[in-house]
Write a structure and sequence with these properties.
The complex is a heterodimer of chains A (316) and B (131). The model of chain A has no long low-confidence stretch (mean pLDDT 94). In chain A, helix 3 links the parallel strand 1 and strand 2. Chain A has an eight-stranded mixed sheet with strand order 2-1-3-4-6-5-7-8, with helices on both faces. Chain A has 316 residues and is α/β, with parallel strands linked by helices. Chain A has one domain: Rossmann fold (3-Layer(aba) Sandwich), CATH 3.40.50. Chain B has 131 residues and is an alpha+beta fold. Chain B has a two-stranded antiparallel sheet. Chain B has a two-stranded antiparallel ribbon with strand order 2-3. Chain B is elongated. Classes of the chains: A alpha/beta (316), B alpha+beta (131).
């Protein structure tokens, strides 16, 4: 059972289970998301992590930053590993060989966007289809940040990365971002949501809901990357604020693949231009010859927001 | 702690978080935990810092914004009160200063070599509206 969290003061009494002195960059949003997950529940946690920034930085030999059971095996199989652990737990419970069968246990897998959208997608899809009781959290920083900033299928149009560099001929990444939340919703998963670390209350609510829901749940967490998005480390939260308020990352949830609820509606919707302007990876879009990309961005974001609102009304 | 070379580490390494069995770490306060040498809690990243946050207890309203957004588990809060900064684990990113809502801010960045007492004596005055 998750504890009730009414306000930040009460939330701050949690006993931290994610230790400092991990080697993530200063100002990285990954650890904010992981901390909130581990602080929002008092249940035992069984965790796994795909290869990626989070894994290489929190288990640097000879140190571990995790105060719960945690496993890393391959680039693609955090979902499979935790599904296996869950299957074993259930089998042992059935046979009566668990030492402490009444202790509540939650199974959580973490993956970056590279290992979720691209490399681990087949494994994630399989684990969701089999219906294991686990939560998968994608830390979406829109780039392979761990290996030096190559594009992934989460990289949005116009972003300059090491494998889609902007220059005289190219304006950077040419393809649209994959709609992973929609794809996971189409699996018929009982709970799918998109969160951002700056809206901590919305995030804690969704994380707790996903832990309590039986069956496979998927959370796409925006994780602003100071290194690859190219902004100052202290601005992680303000960049996230602009991303949410410009509707580039709308916050919503899909229940049973049908009911879509928008959980946050910005009072003042900011133009996408504001979001692009504060990041170095979109700097080249402000040249006169690339203005059409910004216009395209705005059109896409508006169309997406319209789609989400229509779907919320339709309840299908 | 005994360290071994890269060719002596066996495939599949287990790193212990605690030196004794802990039933559920969520129910044990950090100061009461038997941390093992292999827990990164025992390590330090203080040498990453160029600027450090300094905390002014007199202005703080214990809103805990810094606590929830700190990426390095370096804001120490006990019993709903902010009691200090963990300088062993803080990397000096400055997120806590950015999210601090008080006027003037109760957390400010100073150079790593500055003395904390001296920093507190140079604290800026309250800003008036429109300043």
């Amino acid at each position: 059972m998750s504890k009730t969290i009414k306000n930040l003061k009460q939330f701050s009494t949690a006993n931290e289970r994610f230790e400092g002195a991990h080697l993530l960059c200063p100002g990285c949003a990954h650890s904010m998301i992981v901390r909130e997950l581990m602080n929002c529940t008092e249940d035992n946690l069984v965790l796994s992590t795909n290869t990626g920034c989070l894994e290489v930085s929190t288990a640097v030999y000879p140190y571990t930053s995790w105060d719960s059971s945690w496993i890393h095996i391959g680039f693609e199989n955090a979902a499979t590993a935790v599904a296996g652990a869950e299957a074993m737990y259930n089998a042992k419970k059935r046979k009566g060989t668990l030492p402490n069968p009444d202790a509540p246990v939650k199974f959580v897998a973490f993956g970056g966007d590279g290992s979720t959208y691209d490399i681990g997608f087949q494994w994630l899809s399989g684990a969701v289809e089999r219906g294991h009781d686990f939560t998968y959290i994608c830390l979406d920083n829109e780039v392979y940040a761990n290996t030096g900033g190559q594009r992934s299928s989460s990289t949005p149009i116009g972003a300059s990365t090491t494998t889609s560099p902007a220059g005289r001929v190219s304006y950077g990444e040419k393809k649209m971002k994959k709609d992973i939340v929609g794809i996971m919703g189409a699996h018929g998963a009982p709970y799918v949501a998109q969160v951002a670390p700056n809206k901590w209350k919305d995030m804690v609510k969704k994380l707790q809901k996903s832990l309590e829901t039986e069956g496979p749940c998927f959370i796409n967490a925006m994780s602003a990357c100071t290194t690859e998005w190219k902004f100052d480390p202290k601005d992680t939260i303000s960049v996230s604020d602009v991303a949410v308020d410009s509707l580039v990352f709308p916050l919503y949830e899909i229940i049973d693949g049908k009911e879509l609820n928008i959980t946050y509606r910005p009072k003042n919707i900011l133009p996408v231009r504001d979001y692009l302007g504060i990041q170095g990876r979109f700097k080249h879009l402000f040249k006169p010859e690339n203005q059409h990309v910004i216009e395209q961005w705005q059109k896409d974001v508006d169309a997406r927001w319209e789609y989400l609102q229509r779907r919320e009304e339709a309840r299908v | 702690m005994q360290k071994v070379g890269w060719d002596e580490v066996s495939a599949g390494t287990i790193l212990d978080s605690f030196s004794q069995e802990v039933d559920n770490s969520a129910l044990v306060r950090p100061e009461d935990r038997p941390y093992a040498d292999t827990n990164s809690y025992t390590a330090s990243v203080a040498d990453w810092r160029v600027l450090k946050p300094v905390y002014n207890r007199d202005i703080c309203i214990d809103c805990q914004n810094c606590w929830v957004f700190c990426p390095d588990t370096s804001i120490i809060s006990r019993d709903k009160k902010m009691i200090g900064i963990d300088y062993d684990h803080c990397k000096g990113c400055g997120v806590c200063v950015e999210v601090c809502p008080t006027n003037p801010k109760s957390l400010l960045m100073f150079a790593e070599q500055d003395d904390n007492e001296e920093a507190l004596s140079q604290w800026p005055e309250k800003k008036k509206k429109g300043e």
